[in-house]
């Protein structure tokens, strides 16, 4: 009874929110892509002719990686920071310069990482730690509570607050998020919110837990899986072999990176999977553990908004 009336109350509250939001008009965060309408189309990393308008295709970071984690705990359970049950978490959306090299902290005027890694760039430039309001407040300022809610549930950090982790996953090395791409009406931090939307869009293409489960690969503290089994299962649904990262000398599965070439912008464009250009750190001979999580480290996130 109490649960039922609670649900009714929640639904009424939702309706109230919906009618309030229909009165509001939230600012758009998408870039101004009208300049790209007549640009030649090519998948990133596949045509060596320099791209004229770098707002229209990610360059030089045209090999785009959607990365995810399988953690078994967060370390901040006591603060309610829990993992989404039966779901791999978001790590980020990374640019690679088509050759294994990549940029980091490419625009220090948009540096929002409180704990930069590395602290000094390869050319000797120091990366000052950010100590302003968290990037979560940027998302809230644009009224994007739906995005914030998704990020809190699916983009979960281990050992640090979620928003510190999000601040590390900057878009400053991906040309289609450059401030200039937003046109004359750019609003501060629009690019950050736009980037988070792009990360979520790419992440949603890969329900890794489900893809592995489809081949009978479930988290288990009793059995192990071979690297080939894991790669075959992922290729069966994505067409390419992603990178798999393992800890403990290659025996504990921890992460996956899905590689792509992108047609058009990273925000709107088409992502085509390609094989990983990085060798797996998982053992090709030993059994690999895909551990069950500590039950008190997870929660069901699909139940309520
Ligand atoms: C590469 O792009 C250039 C300029 O857009 C175009 O003229 C050329 O045909 C493209 N080459 C290939 C192999 O697609
Ligand atoms: C890691 O694996 C290698 C190769 O299987 C083995 O030689 C080495 O002893 C292992 N190291 C540890 C710390 O288990
Ligand atoms: C499974 O093993 C992992 C790694 O040792 C551990 O953290 C986790 O709590 C275990 N889960 C269950 C359900 O036993």
Mean pLDDT: 92
Morphology call: globular
Per the CATH scheme, the topology name is: Ribonuclease Rh, Chain A
Q: Output the radius of gyration.
A: 20 Å
CATH top-level class: Alpha Beta
Structural class: alpha+beta
The CATH superfamily turns out to be Ribonuclease T2-like
Unreliable spans are 1-8
Number of strands: 7
Separation, N- and C-terminal Cα atoms: 21 Å
Percentage of residues in helical conformation: 25-40%
**Heterogens:** 2-acetamido-2-deoxy-beta-D-glucopyranose
Q: Roughly what fraction of the amino acids lie in strands?
A: 5-15%
Question: What is the total number of structural domains?
Answer: 1
Number of helices: 7
Largest sheet, strands/sense/barrel = 5 strands, antiparallel
Q: Do you know the CATH architecture?
A: Alpha-Beta Complex
Please trace the helix and strand order, writing H or E for each element: HEEEHHHHHHEEEE
Active site: 91, 169-170
GO biological process, one term: RNA catabolic process
GO molecular function: ribonuclease T2 activity; RNA binding
Signal peptide: 1-18
